[in-house]
Structures are given as structure tokens and as C-alpha cells.
Amino acid sequence: MQEQHTVRVVKTTRATAIYIDLRDAILDGSLTPGAKLNVREISERFDTGLSPIREALNRLATEGLARHTDNRGFVVSPVSLPGLMDLTQARCWMNEIGIRRSIELGDAAWEESILVSCHRLTRTPRTSSNGSVGPDSTWNVVHKAFHQSLISACGSPWLVETCSQLFDAAERYRSLARLAGVSRSDPRDEHQDILTAALDRDPDKAAALLTEHFQRTAALVRTVVGEIET
Amino acid sequence: MQEQHTVRVVKTTRATAIYIDLRDAILDGSLTPGAKLNVREISERFDTGLSPIREALNRLATEGLARHTDNRGFVVSPVSLPGLMDLTQARCWMNEIGIRRSIELGDAAWEESILVSCHRLTRTPRTSSNGSVGPDSTWNVVHKAFHQSLISACGSPWLVETCSQLFDAAERYRSLARLAGVSRSDPRDEHQDILTAALDRDPDKAAALLTEHFQRTAALVRTVVGEIET
DNA sequence: CATATCAAGATGATCGATTATTTGTTGACA
DNA sequence: TGTCAACAAATAATCGATCATCTTGATATG
Q1: Smallest CA–CA separation between B118 and chain A, in Å?
Q2: Which CATH number does the domain housing residue B35 bear?
Q3: What residues form the membrane-spanning segments (chains A, B) (predicted)?
Q4: In this structure, are B87 and B71 located in the same domain?
């Protein structure tokens, strides 16, 4: 017997596998902003036909991580200073709503979930053993989980999903900064403080700390973007 | 000479043409929520190969208007009462931010743009001559243009884009209601009032009116959704 | 020297056949 | 009856060839 009957073996499709790979490559900066995404080239690298690649690229494009122009193909979304500022602004606005409503509506289970995810974040080293810091690295996964859990009790899947996309878009900027050698001293305390404010049910403080957290990161990244700008 | 050198003839691709068609069909309710989107069937109806269809469906899926499961194909996104409420909530939150910031930052050009788009909305009959009320009908285009112009001066492309997606998602619910025979008596005055509040630079009033506007529509649609729910 | 024309060549888009996976059906067996 | 394996049909995903469009650069022209 090869498998439990109760377990559904998920056969992932080539298109989504490649989608995930490309996505990670864009998020961790190994695919440079503005770089051409040549379908044939990619298909050879992944040893696949053209169709799955195109599907993956179409998804990335509608998601915002790539750009597409009819008859001119795909390109990794460019980055820019205005882009960073817009992104940061949007993150502040939306996460503020999210955390305020979560503090208002969140139950004990929510409290536990943010506590646990913050704990995990504290315990996870920034750089994994193999030195990887890509979007699939443990720290990044846990980091995102913490931020998403903060707003997860707001009651609006739409808001949560939007914040998730914003987080990813920001992740790209963070990676670029890291590649350029710039990185936070230690955001650990900031996360802790946000957690505390949330557990204390202090919406104003939590929102303020969260906003500062985003803006501080942006300020740091900012110094790098000018040089990369495409 | 076939064309002006200064004019770029836009050669649209089959994939995007079909994307637009399917999109409109979903938004105006001619594709029922939950309905299966059979690739081959669609490809015959449009007299095209499979690839453009798949590309179009992939875009729709990442955009949220369709749903996709690996090896199980595409489906028109279902509707639900919780979905409608979530959507309405998100629209209220985001548009509130948008209009407040626009009132704060908008210049004379913004004032003129909202004035003009409201005027156009007033002058456009709900049902066009051919009786069409689809998302490509004049009224719907003008209606969306008005709502988008209200928040267009907020300074955040991200927010504007998000609101655009939310608007479309809501459009779908409106269409379903209309198909079920339910429709607003006359939202014209509400639009007028919002415009006035915005021009008066009264953020609280504008935000309140906008929120009410959304919620009133939702309340109306609500009665219908239970029966359609998939 | 600047610009226009045009022909490869490169790249993007599409097609229809092929392969993989899921779904539906049948019949053996407890 | 109800369960389950085996098979058949339907549907999804993928491939690689082909067609369409764009880009490049060599040549001609004012």
C-alpha cells in the first residue's frame, strides 16, 4: 500500500511549480528588476515546454510581480523610489485597519496565534544554516506568518489577502537591500513591542508601532533603491 | 500608406481579447457563479486554440474572478453572503482612506475631474439604447470612472488599483441582483451628494456618504444572494 | 550626417496532437 | 445492498511545430 486513503496526494502541475520558483526568484532578487523574461530561455532552464512557462508568467503578471505587454513579452517588475513610497504608504494604511479591527474582534485563539508566531520569529535565526535568505527561507516564512497573524482577526479575507500581496511586494525591496549589503540591526524588539501592544489591546499604540516598523524598513531600503532603479 | 507614423496601431493578442470577453461575461452575470469553465468548449466558441484560453483563465484566476485547482480546471468564482459582506467592508475601508486623502491632497484638476465624471454619470441613461447593461455598457464605464476619480488624488496607485478590483468584484454582485430583477430606485442623488461633500472639502461627510452608498447597495443585493449562492 | 527602407533574425503567440490525471461506470465479491 | 478494484471516458496539462510580430542592422537616399 503506497498511501493512506484519507490522505490526498497533491500532484502539483508544472505550471504552478514554475510559478512558485519564478516567484521566489523575483522576491529574493535573483531575478533583477526590469530583467527580460524570455519564455524560451526559461523553458530550457526548467526543461519544459512553453505553455507552463507562459501560464506561470501570466499569473505573475496579474499579481504584479512581472509586467506584460502584448507581443512584447514579460519583464520583471521594475522598482523605484515612488514605488517604494507608495507601497509603504499602502502597507501602513491597510495594516493599521487590520490590526485595529483584530484588536477589537480577536478572541483568545487570536492572541495565542500572534504570541506563538512572534515566539517562532524570535527563535528563528535571520540566516539559515546554508546561508539562504530567500523568500522560502525559514525566517522569511515565519516573519510573514507573524505579520499576517497580527491582522488575521480583522474579519476581512479581502484585507488579509491584500496585505499579503503588499508584504510580498515589500519583501522584494528588502531582498534588494540585503543584496546591496544593507540590513536592519535587529527588528526583533520592534516585533516584540508590537506583540505586547496587541496583547494589551492598545490599538493606538499597536498601530503606531506597526506603522513605524514599516517606515523604518522603508527608510533603510530607500538608500539602496536609487542605485538599482530601472 | 496604411497608417500614420505617430499613431501606434495596437495589435491586441487573442489571449487578452478573450480575457476581456470572459471578464465582461463574468462581471455581467452571463457566466453564472460556480459554473465550470471548460477550456475546450470555450476554445470552440471563440474559434481559437487552447493556449490563449488558458492564459486568459489564468489571469482571471489570479485576479479573483475565477478559481483554479491543479488538474481540475477553472470555475467562475462563487458568490456568497459572507463574500458580499467582506467585499462591502473592504470597499468601505479602502474608499474611505482614498477619499479622505484625495480631499486632503487633491488640486483643482482633481476637483474638475470628479465634477466632470459625476456630470457624465448624471447624463448617461442606466440602460443603453440596445438594452445592454453589461460591464462594457456606457453607464457602467462612467459609473466606475466616477468612483475611481473620487479617490484618484490619494497619491497611492496601490490603493487605487485595489479599489478598482473591489469595484469589479462588486459589479458582479450588482449584475446578479439586476438579473434577479432587483435594482436601485435612483443612486443619482447619492452620487451628487458625495460629489458636493468632496468639493466642499468635508472629509467626514464625504466618507460617511460613500460608506452609506456602498452599504445601501449591499443591503439591496443581499436579498438576492441567498438564492444564487453556490 | 541624418533619416528611411527593407530584409533577416529573434522573440512572442498560437495551434493541434499527445500525454497525464481525474471522473464515472461496471461488475466481482463480502 | 455496499465496497472496491479495474477499466473506460472525459477533461486537464503539456509539448513542439508553426505562424505573427517585433527588432536589428545593413544599405540606400536626401
Answers
A1: 27
A2: 1.10.10.10
A3: none
A4: no
Query: Number of H helices and number of E strands within chain B?
Result: 9, 3
Please determine, for residue B144, whether its predicted confidence score (pLDDT) is greater than 80: yes
Cα distances from B20 to residues B57, B76, B162, in angstroms, run: 10, 14, 19
C-alpha cell at B138: 456606457
Domain that holds residue A32: 14-76
Q: Check whether residue A67 and residue A119 sit in a common domain.
A: no
Residues 6+ apart with CB under 8 A from A101: A151, A153, A154, A155, A156
pLDDT tens digits, one per residue of B91-107: 999 999 999 999 999 99
* B203 shares a domain with B100: yes
* Nucleotide D23, nearest residue via CA and C1': A72
Task: Residue A162: list chain B partners with CB under 8 A.
Answer: 90, 162
Q: CATH number of the domain at B119, please.
A: 1.20.120.530
Does the reported pTM lie above 0.85? yes
DSSP string of A48-86, one letter each residue: --HHHHHHHHHHHHHHTSEEEETTTEEEEPP--HHHHHH
Q: What are the percentages of helix, strand and coil residues in chain B, rounded to 5?
A: 65, 5, 30
